[in-house]
Design brief:
The chain is 87% helix and 0% strand. Helix 1 runs antiparallel to helix 3 (78-120) and helix 3 (78-120) crosses helix 4 (129-158). The chain is elongated and about 60 Å long. The protein has helices at residues 2-47, 50-71, 78-120, 129-158, 168-202. It is mainly alpha-helical and 203 residues long.
């Protein structure tokens, strides 16, 4: 009777492991597509000439000022709207840089995490927080280095686009977004680990 129960437990464990592996493979594929998609999107935006890029950001800024003018009843004339639109354009562009690289970093770090689960240790969430951090540190460094290298290469690419320029400050803004994205992933994984641990203890 005991041998039959042990055999059944082994079969269930094998089934759970295969289902878990399948989920990891799906996670790997989705994060890979998202990472490549962000890289292509960033490359596309960087490949736009200065006029197109300025029209896009300027149009967004102008719509924002129009929205404030209308809803707050500020009664600004056309000259004032254009002036304030130009005034906020640079901060908006830098925020866009920060945000797109933050999203890129999140996708890349999650994809790197899926590789960790596939190749390094599929029982990652069984380990304690300290062991998880030890496994995650090299991965975090490699993913951030990859994203920062891509950001630097993207700035060099802009130097060959008419009207665009290669700016070290933009790389710094991009790096800030990359590090913040990595921080969010680490925070999310920590909360998810705590959630799984709490759920397991209830069972």
């Amino acid at each position: 009777m005991n041998s039959r129960k042990k055999q059944k437990d082994k079969e269930w464990q094998a089934l759970e492991q295969s289902v878990c592996f399948f989920h990891i493979v799906i996670f790997y594929g989705i994060t890979l597509i998202l990472t490549l998609g962000m890289m292509l999107l960033i490359f596309h935006f960087s490949g736009e000439n200065a006029e197109l890029s300025s029209d896009l950001s300027g149009g967004i800024c102008e719509r924002m000022i129009h929205f404030l003018n209308h809803n707050l009843h500020l009664d600004w004339d056309r000259t004032q709207i254009v002036h304030y639109s130009e005034w906020i354009e640079t901060p908006i562009r830098k925020c866009a840089h920060f945000t797109e690289y933050m999203l890129f970093s999140i996708c890349a770090n999650l994809h790197g995490f899926s590789i960790l689960l596939l190749k390094k240790d599929a029982n990652y969430f069984v380990k304690n927080i300290r062991e998880q951090m030890v496994l995650r540190k090299p991965l975090l460094f490699k993913c951030c280095l990859f994203c920062i290298t891509y950001a630097a290469g993207d700035e060099i690419h802009q130097a060959f686009v008419p009207g665009r320029a290669c700016r070290f400050f933009d790389v710094c803004v991009d790096t800030g977004g990359i590090l913040f994205g990595a921080f969010l992933v680490c925070l999310g994984l920590r909360f998810f680990s705590a959630y799984r641990k709490g759920k397991k203890e209830k069972i």
